[in-house]
Write a structure and sequence with these properties.
A hairpin with a 6-residue loop joins strand 1 and strand 2 (about 30). The protein is an alpha+beta fold and about 100 residues long. It is built from 3 helices and 5 strands; from the N terminus they run αββαβββα. The chain is elongated.
Length: about 100
């Protein structure tokens, strides 16, 4: 028995209408003849939720707990809007975080 996420197996099978094969062992199957692994699906969902929580935590300023929306060119770090006025970043130049990731 092999486990794949539904979107991955559907993408692997593409637009084939009839018999398809398992990506792991190449056993020929009828398309749609798979069963859901709820334990694995629940585990994947928990991992996604944890990843979203970690992303949210990482995207907040440690000092002000606000979103990191600017890139300080001198210090080469992301900062929040409140950090702009702090003595640490006085007279520094800033880019939006989106602009900084594109350059």
């Amino acid at each position: 028995e092999h486990n794949f996420c539904k979107s991955c197996i559907q993408q692997f099978w593409g637009k084939q209408r009839q018999a398809v094969s398992c990506p792991e062992c190449r056993l020929v199957l009828l398309q749609g003849s798979f069963t859901s692994n709820r334990v694995l699906a629940n585990l994947c969902e928990k991992a996604r939720q944890l990843e979203l929580k970690l992303e949210a935590d990482w995207s907040l300023c440690e000092e002000h707990r606000e979103k990191l929306i600017l890139f300080c060119e001198e210090d080469e770090i992301l900062i929040c809007a409140k950090c702009v006025d702090s003595p640490t970043h006085s007279a520094h130049r800033f880019l939006s975080s989106q602009t900084a990731t594109q350059t």
